[in-house]
Predict the 3D structure of the following.
Amino acid sequence: MNLLTGRNMVERSSKFLFIVVGSVLFMLILYQYVAPGMMNFGSPHGYMLEDDADLFPTPDPHYVKKFYFPIRDLERTVDFEIKGDDVIVFLHIQKTGGTTFGRHLVQNVRLEVPCDCRPGQKKCTCYRPNRKETWLFSRFSTGWSCGLHADWTELTNCVPGVLNKKENSMKNQRKFYYITLLRDPVSRYLSEWRHVQRGATWKTSLHMCDGRTPTPEELPPCYEGTDWSGCTLQQFMDCPYNLANNRQVRMLADLSLVGCYNMSFIPEKKRAQVLLESAKKNLRDMAFFGLTEFQRKTQYLFERTFHLKFIRPFMQYNSTRAAGVDLDNDTVQQIEELNDLDMQLYDYARDLFQQRYMYKRQLERREQLVRLRQGSFSAALHVQATTRAKRAAPKEPAPLPLSSGAQLRSCFQG
């Protein structure tokens, strides 16, 4: 009887273990082939993975890469120490959506101590959680401290000294993480033209390079009077000194390599090539850059780069002023020729951006699968250990068999 009971217990335990292991294997198959990324196994950024699937677009499996980038150029996860001496520096290029992104940085990032943005004030106070020092250098936090729309050349030479002065301290241990946004060159150019047409000039920009500003001969104005309001698109394109031409390359390149704004420093063709390669290198080496045309992907990469999460998701607005301009093919071609360097830079940047997005999404999926398998393996081990413990537990003594009446009488008589 005891042997039969033990066999039944072993059979029941084996069946239970088989069911558990089978269920785990089924869930693995279901996860891997049916709904990857649809289950929540604990996102480090607080999103449910169901929300991630809705919020961030799935990488295009048919995307064809144009450039080769090693892993060191695709991996962009930095150990940003907001309580240390790290500073995010936002390089704001005109008409790339930088105003919206800049507001995200001061109003939409989930922080232990949020930026203090008060109505009626143009700047917010973005202090570190542990002391009154800023962690963000941008238009909406420190203002145009290095000049209106300062470029890479200006910022890298200006930011350390400005922060030392603002915080009344000499620090050489700060880590600066430069970030920026790029935009399709034709759309950006048209947006700048419409902005200038309404009266914008940016005449207070310093254009500081190698310790000085450009002379009027080096950077002649495109208009007479206070502004260029009312200019036609053709007039805008006809000015050879218009800084709107290839603005993104100029804003990102090291201008000291080409003699700043001295056009006679090196031949024009060589100058263009040096500027483009410098802009590519600086963009590639930045901690982060986003693309105006891909708002959700930009949000995703920023969050994963700095381990900071936005409270509200980014919105994609396609109905811009530039989108409302009707152009013939010849005009579009002329704009592209005027912005040939920007066209090449944007083609390069878009490919790097898409490859970084694909790489990070694939890496996260593999990490989720590993966590799932580890969890399943732990569950199976737990079941197995429980079964072994039950087998090894001391068994209760079996009850005495019931004796017949004759056996009882003989026992008492004896």
In short: The beta strands are 86-91, 136-137, 175-182, 288-291.
